[in-house]
Predict the 3D structure of the following.
Amino acid sequence: MTKTTWRIGVAGLGVVGSELVNFLFERPRFAPGGVEARVTGVSARSRTAKRRTDIANLPWFDDPVALAKSPDNDIFVELMGGSDGPARAAVEAALAMGKPVVTANKALIAIHGRALAALAEATHAPLLFEAAVMGGTPAVKMLREAMVGDDVQVVAGILNGTCNYILSEMELGGRAFADVLAEAQRLGYAEAEPSMDVGGFDSAHKITILAALAFGAAPTYSAVEVAGIEDIELLDIRLAKDLGYRIKLLASASRSGEGVSVRVHPALVPLDHPLARTGGVLNALFMQGTRIGRIFIQGPGAGGSPTAAAAAADIADVMTGLVRPVFQSPAQTLTPIAPVDQAQTMGRVFVRLLVRDEPGVIASVTETLADGGVSIDSFLQKSIEGVSGVPIVLTTHDAPESVLNEAVRRMGQLPTLMAPPRVIRIARV
Amino acid sequence: MTKTTWRIGVAGLGVVGSELVNFLFERPRFAPGGVEARVTGVSARSRTAKRRTDIANLPWFDDPVALAKSPDNDIFVELMGGSDGPARAAVEAALAMGKPVVTANKALIAIHGRALAALAEATHAPLLFEAAVMGGTPAVKMLREAMVGDDVQVVAGILNGTCNYILSEMELGGRAFADVLAEAQRLGYAEAEPSMDVGGFDSAHKITILAALAFGAAPTYSAVEVAGIEDIELLDIRLAKDLGYRIKLLASASRSGEGVSVRVHPALVPLDHPLARTGGVLNALFMQGTRIGRIFIQGPGAGGSPTAAAAAADIADVMTGLVRPVFQSPAQTLTPIAPVDQAQTMGRVFVRLLVRDEPGVIASVTETLADGGVSIDSFLQKSIEGVSGVPIVLTTHDAPESVLNEAVRRMGQLPTLMAPPRVIRIARV
C-alpha cells in the first residue's frame, strides 16, 4: 500500500457522481499524506447528458462492468443505484478481482450485502458504503469503528429527507400530503415515482445496513417491517401536536431478549425530543450502546455535495489502508436477523377516530379499550373546522402490540365510526 | 500487520484505565476480524489502590516509561494524564521505538501534539487520541476521517461536562455557582482543585485538538483565548433566560478571511438551539464544512465506560491497520494558529448592569452605547427580589469586538453603576 497515486473509476454521473468527479479534479491530494486520487475512467447512461462536470477529457466506458474490470483504475466507485442489474454486476466484477469498491447504493448493500461482503473478504478488497446512509453524516463509520466492541441496543432515527420534508411542510403550511408531494416533485426533492421514499423502502434499505453494523448480523432486508407516510393526514399531524407529539417517519433497529426488531413506520415523537426537532431534509440518528451510552447525530441526509464527500471519505479510507470485515464480523459468520414475534413486543399507540356526533360515543370507545385490556394515557375530543364528524384521539399506555391490534380491530367495528381507526405508534426513543 | 494477538500495555489505572482493562478481559476479541487484544502489562501510581479491576495476575511496572519500552507489549495506552512528566516521557519512549500509542491525554496532545506527531510519523507509529475529546463521542474520528478533504469553517460546542452540569444545576435549582460546585465535588463530578474545568482550560485543551484536526494546523494551545464560568452569577442566568437565551461554556474554532479564531468562553445560546438543549454532563459539537454542510453530534463527554470505549476503538483502529498522519497533514508541514485581531472580529454581547434606582439611568446607558457606535437589539430593566439595585440587561447588534469593548469600558465609568458591567458574548453558532 505504498502507492503515490490511486486511479479512480466512477460509474454513475448523476448529481453525486458529478460532484465527486469535480471534487477529485479540484482536490486530487485531499487524502492525508498527500497521496493523489486521479479519475481515470467514467461510465454513465449517456455520455452527452448535461451535467455539472466536464468529462470530455476522461476515458469513457459504455459498460460499467468494463470500467470495473479495467486495469486502468485502482478503486471502483459505484454511484449508479439499483439493487441488481449493471450496478450489482459491476461491483461484483471489481470485488472478484480484488479491487476496492466504494458505493452509495443502499439497495444493493441492503439486499446483497452479505454475498458481496463474502466476495470482498475472499479477495481482500475493501467494500465501503458510507454514502449509502445519511449522505455526508457518518453513521456507518460511527457504528463500524467508534462503537466497535460495544453492545449496541438501539439505533433509531430519521433516514429519509424527502419524507421528513413532506411531513414538516404539511405541518408548517397546513397542507395535505398530495399537495406537498407534488411541490416536492417540482422542486426536485422527490422522485417522479415517489414510492421508494414515501413508502418507507429507502429508509428500510438504510436501517437494514445500520442494523447489520450495529448487531454484527447479515443485512436482512426481508426482515424489515415497512410502512410509509402516504396515509398520514394533516388532521393526524394537528391532533398529535395537540397531545404534545410530532409525526416522523422513524426507522429503528432494537435488540432485546426476544431478538432484533427492525422497522420503518410513522411514529409520534414528543415535541421536545431531538428527533421531533429534526426538520426539513435533515436526517438524525440515535445510537445506544451499553458502554458508550447514547450518541445523537444530525446532519444533511442527502444532496450531491454531502454524499460525494462521504464517498471521498471512503476513498481516503481505502488509500490509507483501512482493512476491516465489511460488517463487524467476517461475512461467513454473519447470521440473518429473524423478525421478532409481535405478541412479545410492547408498545404504545395513538389512535384517531372519526365518529358521528351521538350520545355515548366516548363510552363505547373507552369500554372497547378497557374490555381489550388497554388503558388510556390521554384522550381528546375536538371539533375541527372543515372536518365532518368528530375526531377523537387517544394515546394508550404500554401493552403488547398484539393486544393493541386486537383492541383497535374491535374499535373498528363500532357503528358510530365514520372511517377506519387510524393507528400510529408512539416512538420508544 | 498480520498479528493474531496484540499485546496491550496500560499506564494509568484510574476510572478509565480500570474500565479499559476490564473490557479487554471480557472482550479480548472485540476488534473486527477476531484478532485478540491481551493486556500484558500495567502501571499506575499505586499497585495496591482499591480499583474496579483485578490486576493481581498482570505484569506490574513501577515506571510507566519502562512499560512503554517493554518488548512485551505492542500498543502502549497512556491514561495517566498531565501534559508533561511521566505521561509525556512514556509516550515519547513508545513512539521513539515505533510502538503505537493510544492516549486520552488532552493536555499532552494540545501542548506537545506537533512534536509528538513528528516523532510518530518518523517511526511510522500510529498516535491516536479519540478518548481525549468528548469521551465516547467520536469527534476526533469525524473530523479526521469523515470530513477529510472538506473545508471546515467552524467547530463549536460544549466540551466540558463539569461546567455544563454546574450551569444546568444553577438554572434548575436556582442556586449559586459556589453552592453547585461544592455539591459537584461531593458527587465526584468536579475535582477538588476545580480550576482546570471551571476555568475553561480543559475545554481549551480539547478545542485546541479539534481546531488542529479541522484546519490541518499544528495544535496551538497558546493561541486559545480562555475564560471560565467562575464569574457567572445566577442573576445572569435568569436575565439571559428572560431574553430567550441560556448561558453555556462554549468552545469554538472558526476560520475566516482574517485567520483562525480559537476560544473558550461563556456564551448566550438561543433557548431552542441544540446546544442550549444539551444539559447536564452531556457534550455536543457542531462541525460545519463547505461540502458536507453542518453536522451536530451529542453524547456523553466523560465517564469511565464511554472514555474506555473510545480508547478501545483506537486500539481496534491500530489493529486493523489504520495509517494516517496524526493531524491532517504530515507534522513537519503543520503551521501554528495565529490569533486573530479582535478589531477584525464581529460579535454581539449581552451586558448586565447593576444600577442605582435614579432618574436618567437608562438614558445615560443608552447614550453611552450610541456614542460608541453600538446599537441595541433588546433591553430589559427588571427589579429582582433579593438583589439590591436595579439590574439592566441589554443585547447589542453586531459590532467589531474592539468597539464593543470600548463602549463597555465607558459604560463602566457611569456614576450610577453599583458594580462593573458583566459582559457575555452571544454565540454565533
Observations:
- The longest strand of chain B covers residues 245-256.
- Chain B has a mean pLDDT of 94.
- Chain B has 13 helices and 18 strands.
- The domain at 139-300 of chain B is CATH 3.30.360.10 (Dihydrodipicolinate Reductase; domain 2).
